[in-house]
Write a structure and sequence with these properties.
The chain has 265 residues and is an alpha+beta fold. The protein is built from eight helices and 13 strands. The strands form four sheets. A six-stranded antiparallel beta sheet has the order 9-10-11-12-8-13.
């Protein structure tokens, strides 16, 4: 009788050999991704468990929660998107109908431009609720996994050690990212062919732009949300272009904005 042995792989985050059989979704399953996944063993069970902590916070206490709810995306357990941002309870429609969102805990500060004739208003919701660090880690995790999966030559060429240390909690110094609508045509799609098509179905795009050996930008678009982060290090030089081209861009965590102001005087 032939006995098949599990293939021993090396985890791309901790570099340890493992025989993990768990499935690692590059874009979290709670964002609607069912098929863009890692080869088993390329993320070990230990790193996979570590990811769950920041994924839960990024998906349940940030602008990504609102977008999940707005798009009617069920969680990986088949439940509605549900969480809280700065005291506001956010929950998607129980029948997963798009653009139907239940919001609880509203105050006058959350309502803008109320029109009594139509009883309509603009809803003001903070983008993050102590979840900027978790969102940074989620972006970096999706970035390195997608590059490994679909752009392996780039993965082998670039040095991701600083990113790996951050995801392993070996160095928890904040890592900046920004939200921006600036359309930089130099970005290239990371997923190919069917993977790219399947992600498009959940309004998701993943792109990269290689500037130099210390700057590999990763752009993640999900619905109306667009975020950019450097996968190689914490340097902020790449941010300048976005702030010049898009006055609505926002750098997170917020304390990085003070650093930029000091730099420019």
């Amino acid at each position: 009788m032939e006995i098949k042995k599990n293939l021993i792989m090396k985890c791309i985050i901790c570099d340890k050999e493992n025989e993990s059989q768990s499935i690692e979704h590059i874009v979290p399953e709670s964002l609607g991704n069912k098929s863009y996944i890692m080869v088993k063993g390329s993320i070990c069970d230990s790193c996979n468990r570590g990811f769950s902590t920041f994924e839960k916070k990024a998906l349940g206490n940030s602008v990504l929660l609102m977008e999940r709810a707005r798009q009617g995306i069920p969680s990986k357990k088949g439940k509605t998107a549900k969480g809280e941002i700065k005291g506001l309870g956010i929950e998607g429609d129980e029948n997963f109908i798009k653009n139907n969102i239940l919001v609880t805990g509203l105050t006058p500060e959350n309502l803008k431009n109320f029109d009594p004739s139509t009883e309509t208003f603009e809803l003001k919701v903070e983008s993050f609720d102590n979840s900027q660090n978790a969102t940074s880690k989620l972006l970096l995790k999706m970035g390195i996994e997608s590059i490994f999966k679909s752009k392996n030559k780039i993965f082998k060429k670039m040095n991701f050690e600083e990113l790996k240390q951050f995801l392993r909690n070996d160095n928890n110094q904040d890592w900046a990212f920004l939200t921006s609508k600036y359309n930089d045509a130099e970005f290239i799609s990371i997923p190919k062919f069917d993977a790219k098509y399947q992600l498009k179905k959940i309004n998701c795009e993943m792109k990269y732009k290689e500037i130099d050996e210390s700057t590999l930008l990763f752009k993640f678009k999900y619905g109306e949300i667009e975020m950019v982060i450097n996968l190689i290090n914490r340097d902020l030089k790449w941010v300048d272009k976005y702030q010049k081209e898009d006055e609505c861009s926002r750098l997170y965590p917020e304390h990085f904005r003070k650093k930029l102001k000091k730099r420019f005087g």
